[in-house]
Design a protein that fits this description.
The structure holds 2 protein chains of 2 kinds.
Chain A lengths: L10 H28 L4 H4 L13 H7 E5 L2 H6 L6 H8 L2 E6 L2 H32 L5 H10 L5 H15 L5 H25 L3 H9 L4 H12 L1 H17 L2 H6 L7 H8 L8 H22 L3 H5 L7
Helix pairs in contact in A: 1-15, 3-15, 6-9, 6-12, 6-14, 7-9, 9-12, 10-11, 14-15
Chain B lengths: L4 H8 L2 H41 L19 H8 L1 H32 L6 H13 L2 H11 L6 H10 L15 H26 L3 H9 L4 H29 L3 H6 L11 H10 L4 H31 L1
Helix pairs in contact in B: 1-2, 2-13, 4-8, 4-10, 5-8, 8-10, 10-13, 12-13
The chains are: A mainly alpha, B mainly alpha.
Chain lengths: 314, 315
């Protein structure tokens, strides 16, 4: 064994720490694993008591999530031609027929459109503003930066009332454009602050060299600074995307059908019909959470910076 | 490639003059770059805020846009501040705020302190632990409702398994006083990693030589913790508390989906009450005043707190 410096924790304490933290990780992830496993259960398995850990996996929940179905009698089912697809088969086995697609697909698509639209806009505007704040003498710079940050402190419901009225006046209520603009505005505080931090770290000498070589400011900006800031821009974009993807309060207040995203829609699955179709709810949650989990793993190096608006850089 | 006259002039002139011309256009660029952001923020944040202030002095109702709008002065504000329900909601909010922050700080700091021992695989475990805080509160609220189901839920089963209390004898979200703790548990589950991450940054910012000096002085580990580790990580810890405090004061999504404010009014946080007033009872004027009261409260508390934080940092 090598000699330890005084600040290096002893191997024993490392082991204990590792075991305790590992234990916490397991406990904290149980709810998540439980939801993912529930999405592959059949209806009766999902509500059995004691809870079933070992079960026959089925895609029933996913099929129910994406389709609307009606009950058919045994005779009617016998009359129908044999099911042609796997999802038809799963549904028929439970004495149901698929009557059409559900609204979940469309809500999911709305989330994608609004998420990517607002992310693109907030990164585009945020990068420009961050560059200006980082490199130029902007009058009242600190006040403007603080103002940008302070917009994040308002309770969403407080501004939701006039935004609701304003959108109604402008014909933006329940439209994709309205939600994209709103999420862009909310995300701008994050993107300006984060991107300013990333651009501050790029040495000015690069641009100055480019300027001396005869580049204009614009050229120096997009040929020298942008490529250097690419990682920062990418991670900021993921943060903006996750926010827009997850947002609930504005979505539930300002959208109803056309532009409704998945977060306000998923809870409504709970109240369909008499019994709650838990596998379908779990399937919706799983599909919705999976991209975020993947992004979190990709983001892990910049996570701290993102959640503190760049205040803590490590 | 755009080649404006200014550029040509800039190239033709000797360096100092060229720089001055570019300096002039820099200012223009700065404005072009900043203006759209400021414009959007003004129109989606400041303009609505001013509108809210204006509405708060009226009896306007958004579901009756054609009804006559009367100027009622401070009546909305006096009603809110003298209403016993408001104070009850504030207490519910305070209960939620104090307990979530207490648990998150205790668990989050302990985790960070343990992870800082840099055991094998600590990066992987850290990534796994932070997953909950990145998820959608709407979906989290939704699936915790499932876990809290009295007959079939995992939480009740776990309680029965560990303590022997029958699983169907209590309901976390139903009557019986558990609901206000149920929301604290879910928020703690979701946001402890946030506090942990910031604390970890704080602990990692402490330079090794301070501990080395303490060892030379034969300070015990216990003493080192109280005189070095904690004070030096404190500004970070306080920053985490500030973020969580602001977020939980305006908490809406998670709790509205878990309990909707119920049972009765047991978990009726201020912002859920505000949503009811504004979008269910359509008392727009009244709820605008309510929103302003909440905003001023959070802003005031946050500024006092930031002053304290800066003092700690200066030490």
């Amino acid at each position: 064994m090598s000699a330890h410096s005084v600040t290096e924790p002893s191997p024993a304490s490392k082991w204990i720490a590792g075991i305790l933290v590992g234990l916490y990780a397991v406990i904290t992830l149980i709810p998540l694993i439980w939801i993912i496993s529930t999405s592959f259960k059949s209806g009766p398995d999902s509500i059995s008591y004691p809870p079933k850990v070992v079960f026959q996996p089925t895609l029933e929940g996913y099929v129910n999530l994406f389709t609307t179905q009606s009950r058919a009698s045994v005779e009617d089912l016998a009359k129908l031609p044999a099911p042609t697809t796997w999802y038809d088969k799963i549904t028929r086995e439970r004495g149901m027929i698929i009557s059409g697609p559900s609204r979940f697909g469309q809500r999911f698509l709305n989330s994608v459109i609004i998420g990517f639209g607002s992310t693109f806009l907030s990164i585009f505007l945020g990068t420009l503003a961050a560059y200006a704040f980082s490199r130029f003498k902007v009058p009242l710079k600190d006040d403007l930066l603080f103002f940008i940050l302070s917009t994040r402190m308002m309770p969403p419901i407080a501004v939701a009332i006039p935004i609701y009225l304003m959108f109604r006046q402008l014909g933006l209520s329940d439209t994709h454009l309205g939600m994209i603009l709103l999420y862009t505005a909310v995300n701008l505080s994050l993107s300006v602050w984060l991107l300013k931090g990333f651009i501050d770290e790029i040495p000015r000498e690069y641009e100055e060299a480019a300027l001396i070589d005869g580049y204009t400011r614009f050229q120096a900006f997009y040929k020298v600074v942008l490529p250097q800031a690419a990682t920062g821009i990418a991670s900021t974009a993921i943060f903006c995307l996750i926010f827009a993807w997850n947002e609930y309060a504005f979505a539930v207040l300002l959208t109803s059908g056309n532009a409704q995203t998945a977060p306000p829609f998923i809870p409504t699955i709970l109240s369909v019909g008499g019994g709650i179709d838990w596998p379908a709810v779990a399937a919706a949650a799983t599909l919705f959470l999976l991209p975020v989990i993947i992004f979190t793993v990709l983001l892990r190096k910049h996570l701290l910076r993102g959640i503190t608006f760049g205040a803590v850089r490590k | 490639m755009t080649d404006t006259p200014a550029d040509r002039l800039a190239r033709a002139t000797p360096q100092p003059v060229a720089r001055r011309i570019r300096g002039l256009s820099d200012r223009a660029i700065a404005w072009i770059f900043v203006a759209p952001t400021i414009f959007l923020l003004l129109s989606v944040n400041i303009f609505p805020l001013i509108w809210t202030i204006r509405l708060s002095f009226t009896n306007f109702a958004a579901n009756k846009p054609n009804a006559e709008v009367k100027w009622v002065g401070l009546r909305n504000y006096t009603r809110i501040l003298t209403d016993a329900d408001t104070w009850a909601n504030m207490q519910t909010t305070a209960h939620f705020l104090i307990w979530t922050i207490t648990f998150q700080v205790l668990i989050g700091f302990s985790l960070a302190w343990l992870i800082n021992r840099k055991f094998k695989g600590n990066d992987l475990v850290t990534t796994l632990i932070v997953i909950p805080m990145m998820l959608s509160p709407a979906v989290v609220g939704n699936f915790w409702t499932f876990l809290y189901q009295p007959q079939i839920g995992l939480v009740n089963y776990a309680v029965e398994f560990l303590t022997g209390i029958p699983a169907d004898s209590f309901s976390m979200l139903g009557p019986g006083g558990w609901a206000r703790w149920a929301i604290v548990i879910v928020d703690t589950w979701m946001w402890t990693p946030f506090v942990m991450l910031i604390c970890l940054a704080g602990l990692r910012s402490i330079p090794d030589y301070i501990y080395e000096a303490a060892e030379v002085d034969r300070a015990s580990k216990w003493r080192q913790f109280w005189t070095i580790t904690l004070p030096m990580a404190l500004p970070f810890l306080m920053l985490a508390v500030l973020f969580r405090g602001i977020e939980n004061f305006r908490m809406f999504d998670l709790v509205v989906l878990l309990t909707g404010g119920g049972p009765g009014n047991e978990t009726l946080l201020a912002s859920i009450d505000l949503k009811r007033e504004a979008f269910e009872k359509w008392r727009t004027g009244y709820s605008s005043a309510y929103a302003i009261v909440l905003f001023v409260t959070v802003f005031g508390l946050a500024s006092i707190y930031v002053k304290a934080l800066n003092k700690v940092k200066e030490r």
